[in-house]
Amino acid sequence: MTVKTTTHILGYPRFGSQRELKLAQEKYWRGEISQAELKEVGSLLRHRHWGEQSGAGLDVVTVGDFAWYDHVLGTSMLLGHLPKRHRSGFPDLDTLFRVARGKAPTGCACAASDMTKWFNTNYHYIVPEFSADDEFNVSWPQLFEEIAEAKQAGHKVKPVLLGPVSYLWLGKEKEQGFDRLSLLPRLLAAYQQILTKLANLGIDWVQIDEPVLALELPKKWRNSFKIAYQVLHGAPKLLLTTYFDSITHHLDMITGLKVDGLHVDVSAAPEQLEEVVQHLPEGWVLSAGVVNGRNVWRADLSALLERLQPIKALLGDRLWLASSCSLLHSPMDLDLETELKPEVRQWLAFAKQKCRELTLLAQAMDGNEIAIEECARYSAPIKARATSTLVNNEQVRQRSEAITDALAERKLPYQERARIQRQSLGLPLLPTTTIGSFPQTNEIRTQRRDFKAGRLNEQAYVNAMQGHIDDAIERQNKLGLDVLVHGEAERNDMVEYFAEQLEGFAATRFGWVQSYGSRCVKPAVIVSDIYRAKPMTVSWAHYAQSLTEKPVKGMLTGPVTILGWTFPREDLSREAIANQIALALRDEVADLQEKGIKIIQIDEPAIREGMPLKASQWQAYLDWAVKAFKISAASAEPKTQIHTHMCYSEFNDMIESVAALDADVITIETSRSDMELLKAFEAFDYPNEIGPGVYDIHSPNIPTVEQIVELVEKAEAKIPAKRLWINPDCGLKTRSWEETEAALTNLVEAAKLLRQQY
Ligand code: GLN
Ligand code: ZN
User: How far is CA 467 from CA 544, 625, 634, in A?
Assistant: First the structure.
């Protein structure tokens, strides 16, 4: 007789398929609904989401994944551990919002905590702040209340907790000379209290997330696991949960821990499964994360069935099936996507469908004949996709295969290009420019929306956009900027625009994924081989250039960024996809140049964040990422100046690769770091030109001439003036024209003063 296979997920999206939580939160922040009404929306969504999990047939529902802003901040609240400046009175929901956003409907305004990326996803968490005298007092009852709520609704509950070592790792010290790991004993006492409470609530298993196990950890951090789980061992049982990459490099240590089970991500690192099975300690449960929690593809259930059968034979009921990671990173419900082409739709599965995949697979594993057949039927489209002509384009493949190292190289080295460009462009010392986008006014947004909805015909739309270009060029000329931009009025988003223009992408209607707080993004899906059927930006750039004598920059988004901010296909490597995009962009660069565009910017803000989790894999990634960028840029003749732009990035450990991009000019976000980020460029003797941002576009403050002069002087101490540009930190699309013009007036004025100085 076969034993029943247990199924669960690591977490569910929080927002609701219509982004109900986002809308309610924002209304609450604006004072339009009460806290009670906001809480009501949260409760409604939790019930709906638990209902969907048990409706799909999962054995337990996951509780503790719901968060009002972010689950790391939720953990800080649970632990009674908030930044010092926010510790007044008993913490409530407004305390949480104040830590996240600096303000809330009640209480004082106080600096928000930092936010940073959650591993290699596009989700951002609130960074815990640690000081030597920090204490942890389990106070915030949200988790316990939600468990009671789910139980009352008749669900079998498995709570999730962010584990203590990961919690410490993800935070940062607020004081010098203190090591946050020294707080572990105190922190563990609080976790013990939480676990005891959970045991008293009748909880059998707890999912304790330690995603840092996917990283290559320093020794003391690695060793801290032993102490931590020695202390936490007992009732309830602990499922040590890892995701986003393999953990076999820590397997010796992990198998020595006092836990009751292990979850591994079989989707991100398929090859680790067999090794983990082989070393699984006696009595441990193995939760196999087989359904990808962070992409949109239908699982090949028959293939999984075949692969997992022998493991089931070995482990029996100790094998559980799960999503690879929390479904937080997956859109909510494919059923809503009525406008996707049917052939594309049958390749996809969103959070709700992924739950059903798990239970179907489990039934098949348990020998249910109907389920086995259903698995085969369900997997047929995704299997057929492998050879579908809809997906695989022979020409694209051939062109990709023909890529050589030489294809990625410009015809002349930078020094010679620079000489030619200096002559042909005739720019002054310290040229002034902007990063690309200008204010996206309501008028612009409405016109784009009307065009999409068919309320505005193509000619009227083109006229409207050209009107915005006229306006942008006129303003820039008046301001006296040296290198102009067309302003990007036609772009809602720097990736979405190209996803719509290129072949190979599909857009969803409701495929929202939480990025941070109430912010969601709706990445396009790369469904097939990518190519450019027609020029994408040439007519806008050409029109803008026709209006002025000054050079107008062509404006493209780079291959690594387009890849990084979409759902990639899984049957091709990221490198291969990036190369396809690069070839398409390469043709765009050639066309822009042909139409008289002398400067082309290829934005790559996502290069840094695409770094693999394991430091030992960084270089291999950077090598192909750099090459993809260079392939797109290298159709430029020596006289065409290639710019790139990166937002706030840690450049120290990748400066060599930044230099290897061989962009003639790079603009970076530096004003908030007071030009400190230029140290990496100075130390490396970075050879090409740099435009370190001289004012923070995220702030409404207008930089003064003196402030800009001072920043450029700091930059000049590190990089010679003849290789410096003057520009803002990033695009100006979120600012108003009033702020933009005031800031740029000062920027141009500062450049004039500085030119007399050097
Ligand atoms: N060209 C883009 C803009 O100005 C760059 C945006 C970015 O770096 N995120 O909006
Ligand atoms: Zn930027």
Answer: 10, 37, 32
Please provide the DSSP assignment of 316-383 as one string: GGGEEEEESS-GGGS-S-GGG-TTS-HHHHTTB--HHHHHHHHHHHHHHHTT-HHHHHHHHHHHHHHH
Q: Which of 434, 645, 740, 744 to mutate to test the pocket of ligand 1 (most atoms within 8 A of CB)?
A: 645
Name the helix (H) or strand (E) containing 473. helix 458-479
Report the distance separating Cα 285 and Cα 691, nearest Å. 54
Measured CA distances, 68 to 100, 142, 520, 572, 702 (Å): 10, 10, 14, 36, 33
CA pair distance 71, 140, nearest whole angstrom: 13
Could you tell me how many helices (H) and strands (E) the chain has, helices first?
27, 21
Which token pair is 370? 């109907």
Structure tokens of 548? 């002025």
Q: Which residues contact 353 (CB under 8 A, 6 or more apart)?
A: 298, 333, 334, 335
pLDDT in tens, 581-630: 999 999 999 999 999 999 999 999 999 999 999 999 999 999 999 999 99
547-565 pLDDT, tens digit per residue, is: 999 999 999 999 999 999 9
Contact between residue 577 and residue 621 where contact means Cβ atoms under 8 Å apart = no
Is the distance from the beta carbon of residue 437 to the nearest atom of ligand 1 less than 6 Å?
yes
Confidence (pTM): 0.96
Of the candidate ranges 350-364, 583-597, 672-686, the one whose mean pLDDT is the lowest: 672-686
pLDDT at 383 over 70: yes
Report the nearest-CA residue for atom 4 of ligand 1.
731
Q: Is the distance from the beta carbon of residue 730 to the nearest atom of ligand 1 less than 6 Å?
A: yes
Name, in order, each residue with C-beta under 8 angstroms of 149's C-beta and a sequence gap of 6 or more.
43, 46, 47
ipTM for the whole complex? 0.99
- 351 touches 12 (CB < 8 A): yes
Asked whether residue 437 is marked as a ligand-binding residue, the answer is: yes
CA distance 682 to 651: 11
27 is in an annotated binding site: no
Question: Any idea of the CA torsion for 363, 367, 368, 370, to the nearest 10 degrees?
Answer: 110
- Which atom of ligand 1 lies at the shortest distance from residue 434's CA? 4
Query: Helix (H, G, I), strand (E, B), or coil: what is residue 22?
Result: helix
Strand ranges (E), 593-718: 599-603, 641-646, 665-668, 689-692
Query: Closest ligand to 556 CA?
Result: 1
Q: How far is 545 from 555, CA to CA, in rounded Å?
A: 12
Is 31 annotated for ligand binding?
A: no
How much is the mean pLDDT over the chain?
A: 96
**What are 61's strand-pairing partners?**
157
> Does the annotation flag 375 for ligand binding?
no
DSSP 287: E
Is 267 in contact with 293 (CB distance < 8 Å)?
yes
Say if ligand 1 is within 6 A of residue 435 CB.
yes
- The CA distance from 712 to 298, in Å, is 52
Calculate how far, in angstroms, residue 505's C-alpha sits from the geometric centre of ligand 2.
24
| 436 within ligand 1 shell (Cβ under 6 A) | yes
Cite the beta strand spans of 596-699 per DSSP E: 599-603, 641-646, 665-668, 689-692
| 98 C-beta closer than 6 A to ligand 1 | no
How many C-beta atoms lie closer than 10 Å to residue 405's C-beta? 8
The per-residue pLDDT for range 252-283, each reduced to its tens digit, is 999 999 999 999 999 999 999 999 999 999 99
Q: What is the pLDDT of residues 405-436, one digit of tens each?
A: 999 999 999 999 999 999 999 999 999 999 99
Angstrom distance (rounded) from CA 337 to CA 567? 16
Q: What is the DSSP letter of 428?
A: P
pLDDT for res 1: 52
CA dist 693 → 29, 260, 722, 742 (Å): 32, 51, 16, 16
The residues annotated with a catalytic role in the active site are: 698
